[in-house]
Amino acid sequence: MITKDIIATFILFTRLPLGRICKVPTDSFRRIVAYWPLTGFLTGSVMSMVYLLAVYLNFHAIIAVLLTFTSRLLLTGALHEDGLADFLDGFGGGHTREKTLAIMKDSHTGSFGVLGLTLYVLLWISSVFILIRQLKGNEYILFFTCDIWSKWCASQIINILPYARKEEDCKIKNTYEKTSPVRFIIGFSCAILPFVYILVFNSAHILFLAGAIAPLATMFFLAWYMKRRIRGYTGDCCGAMFLLCELSYILTVNCLWKFF
Question: What pLDDT does 200 receive?
Fold first, then answer.
């Protein structure tokens, strides 16, 4: 059953054609959020390889970062970015719980979503560009840690908040189950592996450990804000949570760099 759940996780969170190869029960999609960090190993690997290839081909660093960012968009189908845009539209334009949920369900993107998504992309690319000039060949650490750890932090939203809509209104027609102890251990073990690597093999970049507190703080703040506004979470909230946790991580590491 765990294998089926993990396959379902990659089916939903990536563009891999696993759904054509392996059929998984619908019930597996209820448990995918717990295994979300596993997809970070795939996206982190792809981002690292694209960046290294771009550098090898003598692309300018800013172009390499743009290509790296684009590679994850293509691999995930911009699923999380779509969630962030809907989240910003809903919470920016909605003044009541019902209006906020209705705006988030609308497939059209409004001004809050466009402006917020643009600002997010600019902050991500500029912050990563600044960091890679300091990392000196260890950029892969950044791509793995920020992606995997932020996905685990974001995944905790289902354990903190209830689903804000009725189950039949859910896009995948299933609401997520709270994480069981076994699934929690699996997800957390995946999330801390990059940090274990840093401690054992690359202690020079211990600042990544210090920066890890930022996504946790961001997750708790956003969970509080979502509970206050819509009394729960939606799928769009999950995507927004991941990207904002990741951005807080990157920005924090940027701020801490001069102290290490």
Answer: 83
- Per-residue pLDDT at 24: 87
User: In the chain, which ranges are continuous DSSP H helix?
Assistant: 2-13, 18-21, 36-56, 61-76, 79-93, 97-105, 111-135, 139-155, 157-160, 181-201, 207-211, 213-230, 235-256
Q: Which residue has the tokens 């940090």?
A: 195
Contacts 24+ apart (CB under 8 A), 68-74: 68/128, 68/143, 69/121, 69/124, 69/125, 69/128, 71/46, 71/47, 72/43, 72/46, 72/47, 72/147, 74/15
Give the per-residue pLDDT at 27.
87
Evaluate whether 185 touches 248 at the Cβ level (below 8 Å): no
Residue 129 in contact with residue 62, Cβ under 8 Å? yes
d(CA 189, CA 150): 13
Residues lower than pLDDT 50 in the chain: none
User: Model-level pTM?
Assistant: 0.94
CB half-sphere exposure, 167, CA atoms < 13 A: 6
| Count of residues in the chain | 260
Instruction: Copy the structure tokens of residue 237.
Output: 């909230």
Instruction: List all residues 6 or more positions away from 52 whose beta carbon is below 8 Å from its beta carbon.
Output: 139, 140
User: Using CA atoms, how far apart are residues 169 and 22, in angstroms rounded to an integer?
Assistant: 26
Long-range contacts, 185-190 (Cβ 8 Å, 24+): 186/2, 186/34, 186/35, 187/34, 187/35, 187/36, 187/37, 187/38, 187/152, 187/155, 188/152, 190/37, 190/38, 190/40, 190/41, 190/148, 190/152
Give yes or no for a contact between 179 and 159, defined as CB atoms under 8 angstroms apart: yes
Q: Is-contact 37 190, C-beta < 8 A? A: yes
